[in-house]
Predict the 3D structure of the following.
Amino acid sequence: MRGMGRWIACLAVAAATGCGQGHVIFNVDALSFLRPSGDDNIPYDLPGGFTADSSVAQFFALPGGLGKSTINTVSITAAAAIVNATGGGNMVFDVFFSKKQAGLFTGTPYVSAASGPVSGVDSVPLLPPTTVSPGDTVFNSDSVWVGIRAHLTSNPPLLPHMTGRLRLTELSVHIVINDKIF
Amino acid sequence: MRTSVVGTGVAVLTLGWAAQVAGQGLVFDARRVGMGGLALGRSSSLVRYNVAYRAVPANSDRRGEPKVTIPIPLGLIQFLHDHPNITKDPAFNPDSTGFNPILVVNTLLNLPIYYEVKQAPTPTNDVIFGIGRDSLRANLGAAAQIVPEDQFGIGGSSRPLDPGIGIRGVRLSVMGWLHDEVGFQLGDNLLGFLRDSQPASANTAYTVNGDGILEGGLAPSIAYAGRIAGDSTMGFYVGAAAHYYLGIAYARTSGVGGFRTGNPILGAPVRPTITAVTDYSKAGNALGHGVGGDVGVAWVSGPIELGVGVNDIGATLTWSDTRRDTLLYDTTSNALRTTPGPNHFTTKTKLPVSYIANVAYSVGLTTLGADVLNAGRGTTIHVGGEQRVGLFSLRGGVARDQRKRIEFGWGGGLRFAAIGFDVGFWTHTNSISNERGITMATSLSIY
């Protein structure tokens, strides 16, 4: 992912030179970058009656010019599924973006969806609505951290544990910047 | 990295579109602009490219040719009004969020000498990049049409100075000469990616091929130009010049530069791929040597004037003290490395043959003309005319530039005794656009 910035900076020369007053739009399939490292799956194993978070974070290098651009809008589309094996409880699926790793999971998530009650062997889709953030400053940067969090609340008793995994099925970022990419 | 990539990209695009500038030439005379770039009378280009014209007497009354032309650079006023402090103007500062590469390139391609009546519109569509770990695709929309498909570049030969003495048609001089050419060609992969919106592939090079040459020196010359038949109203003139070229320095390079995608495309580091071979002979090394010549003829018969001139015929220089270096991007150390190659070997360079053919016809207060000029890289054609009506002059013309695009010129003038004021308009495709802009030139003429 770190090489992407250089690649896109090169390509965007043509874009910036050619686009006039138009916009430069990046449609980033962020999930494709998470999948090889297994970060698209967040396993969980929580004794009954507890609350815990399970999360992954990954660094993304953005096109170099973005750090000096004016972001028009950012749209985040995500989808996930809970593949529960044992136990029961609730899960809230959150996606965060931040310029720094510290504090990535604080604040309001960009997209969020609650599973509702889950019990035993079950598969529950999580389809949070697409969020649109005008003028988002998080993407006014040469890099961004992406965080995926599963916030679990398991049902008592202690046993059986609530086990399974959160499987991310879509995470795409649509960034519209104004013409002055460089 | 960002700056260098941007700089290279802008430079490449500038050079690419600069070919069009060369196509129409940088003209400071509103009269010429009004005739689509056509040069009538004893302009420097005729004398430069047709040695016989040294002997053809000027006929300024009939051709309406001024002795001196002084450009009025209204474009500078326009530019300074729009950008009163260019050093602090964010549009020209790459570190600013307001940096506008289109404006920078277009300013370089259209030096703000004359007033730009109609800016050539640049594509205003959105540009979309689809990015995944193993996928990359760009959709430039209408902007893709400005990605050059063919080889593009600038260059040619010039003679910046030619001091000498002449006696009875024979002229001895020491001519300064310069030959420069830069050419680029987008590789098929890069062209398909940018222009045809083809998806990128893994482990694939996206490159630009480039070549260039720069050489210069002096040439002791002997030339003759004279009338061999007829008189001042109807005569046949010939001219010839022999040059002994002494090359002071030269460099010639050929290379390929770009990036190679990883596998997966964006899941692995992108590696620059740069290779270039450069032959050069620095100033202070042994001089290059070569012999060449110019020939020209001109025929004047009353209202008709014809001329043909050819330059630098057979001008091949031999450089006996050449060195070759190879430039390579080392992917291991991520650094450019220069490897010295053979030294003190002999190479040859060849100056491009340039030529001009012109015709002019004057009857009464009307002058019509045409010329075909090739200064070493592409042919330009100009056809135009001037009609003088009392104090006024009306002009029009058509040109075909090096891109083979048709451009139009029109204008007029007002003359009081020895002073004239001229205005000329012409279309151009010098900007980053496939549509024409219109420039208005103004100048004063002293007759």
